[in-house]
Amino acid sequence: MPASAIANAITAPNLPRIFRKETRYEFLKLLRTKSFSLATIGFPLMFYVLFGIANRNAYAGTVHIAKYMLCGYACFGLIGAALFGIGVGVAFEISAGWLELKRASPMPVAAYLFAKCASAAAFGLVIVVLLTIIGIAFGDVHIATSEFAKMLAMTVIGSISFASMGLLLALLVPSNAAAGIVNLIYLPMSFLSGLWMPIRFMPHWLQSFAPALPTYHLAQLMLSIFHYNDTISLATHWNALIGFTLLMLGSSWLVFHNKEQNA
Amino acid sequence: MPLAAIAYETEPIADKAHARAQAEPVASLTSITKRYAANTALDAINLTLRPGEIVALLGPNGAGKSTAIKLLLGLIGPTSGTVRIFGSDPREASTRTRVGAMLQVSRVTETLRVREHLDLFRSYYPHPLPVAAILDIAQLHGIEDKLFGQLSGGQKQRALFALAICGNPDLVFLDEPTVGLDIEARRALWQQIRNLAAQGKTVLLTTHYLEEADALADRVIVLHKGHVIREGTPADIKRNSGGRTIRCRTTLSRELLQAMPTVTSVTCQQDSVCVIASDAEAVVREMLLLDASLSNLEIAIPALEDAFLALTSS
Questions:
Q1: pTM above 0.90, yes or no
Q2: What is the average pLDDT score of chain B?
Q3: Distances (CA, A) of B134 to A20, B101, B115, B122
Q4: What CATH number is associated with residue B260?
């Protein structure tokens, strides 16, 4: 059929433009969804003001508690944006049939995943920037420009890592239960990893549980920027975070293909 | 049945259909079976779409209509059989740029404006329609800057229709396109669907409104429990299922009418009687002979709805 041959020859989608638009509209969507944007940005800021700024004159040895907790709430915030933005967001789009409509269109699946991930990272960056401003302005926190840059880089890495967990949850959890289940995982995991208060203030038996959690390794990597990390080597934390991410992505891939087979 | 009586309505369609039969199929399902765990959604069905035709897929809930559309869109794979769109796999990106789809979506991203949704979907296609043209076709002027969540049910349907056609596709799938539309909007959308076909595009639609299939489709495919039980023009379907309806005032008894050749049913309504017979002419001739006072005679092809019920009620 000559018509189709011609059509195929001129079918060269403008990929960068699709990725850009997909990301822009995903971010706009999240920003306009007040239940998401207010909660994911508001809670870490509120907690940091209540528990971090209140400790602006507190030191544990050489550790400035307000600065230590800046790292904790940075992780808490970026993980929340990734788990709610992707876990709840994608679960909803699957159940509503919206993802199916997008998959029926010529949208590249990579553009969809990239947009989700980039938007979660953008929210993470907004949260970390706001937390840092609050810390510097009210918490007596001093941060070098290079340290701040490392924090932002770590935010992007953490967002990608927990976006992969969000994706797996979205594929496994029914949309009407997604927000509840994400909270059930997110809140205890954050607490047990010392994101809300320094882990050294927690009972010993709880402390020993922390290295089993991916959130703990992300927090230690963030803390390492200020040399506040624990005695476990950084290589171990990196390996744990990367291993966790690959496990989540691999499981998502398996679940997705299993669903497609049975669809 | 004398063929001359119905020739006026079948001949032009038959010519068109003949011309299409020569053309390469746009899309096809070949001996497709689709099983889910225990139940069989589609059982060895064949379906072919030819350029420029509007085909309506009819059937009760669970007949396999949505499964057929999802297979054609490459959203699911068949248990056995072959799916071909423009001669290639429906999952290929180059195929998808020539296809548009309107599926039943329970909730669309509500915090994006109509214009933003269109902008995004247009970017997926190499040669999309201009925004103004899309707004014209889907009648979205004046609401293009509204958030999707602020639209009424009918406006949402029109916006989804806009997303289906924004890429200027050659093949359009419309799953229940006019659900929630008022009569005026429904007729306007029908006109747009006819315009698509007039431009040489192929349309496959599923609908619960038999009136819609009757008004739009060149060909109707009736699906029931995963089988194609009837295929033809709306007129064929009506004619071949249950014959025609004879309505009149008569003094003839119900038993006598029931005993006439080819009569399948006799019902009385107020002072008139309604007889369904496949050889209507013979029955009417006999009735006129037996009852000189027979009045208010009407002979009608049953509504597609009745034909459809007759086909699927087995």
A1: no
A2: 85
A3: 22, 15, 10, 10
A4: 3.30.70
Query: Are residues B205 and B268 both part of a single domain?
Result: no
Q: A97-135 in b/e burial notation, b at 16+ Cβ within 10 A? A: bbbbbbbbbbbbeebbbbbbbbbbbbbbbbbbeebbebb
Residues on chain B touching A11 (C-beta within 8 angstroms): 93-94, 97, 126
**Residues B10, B90 within the same domain:** yes
The range of the structural domain enclosing residue B12 comes to 4-98+170-238
If asked whether residues B223 and B293 sit together in one domain, one would say no
How close, in Å, is residue A132 to chain B by CA atoms? 29
CB within 8 Å: A21 and B120: yes
B53 pLDDT exceeds 90? yes
Q: Please tell me if residue A263 touches chain B, with a CB cutoff of 8 Å.
A: yes
Does A257 reach chain B within 8 Å, measured CB to CB? no
Would you say the ipTM is above 0.85? yes
Shared domain for B37 and B52, answered yes or no, is: yes
> In chain B, what residues touch A10 (CB-CB under 8 Å)?
126-127
Task: Residue A201: name the closest of A54, A63, A31, A37 by CA.
Answer: A63
In chain A, pLDDT over 90 holds for what percent of residues? 76
Q: Considering only CB atoms, which chain A residues are within 8 Å of B85?
A: none
CATH of the domain at B225: 3.40.50.300
Domain that holds residue A161: 15-262
Asked if A97 lies within 8 A of B104 by C-beta distance, the reply is yes
Q: How many domains does chain A have?
A: 1
Q: Which residues of B touch A1 (CB under 8 A)?
A: 24, 86-87
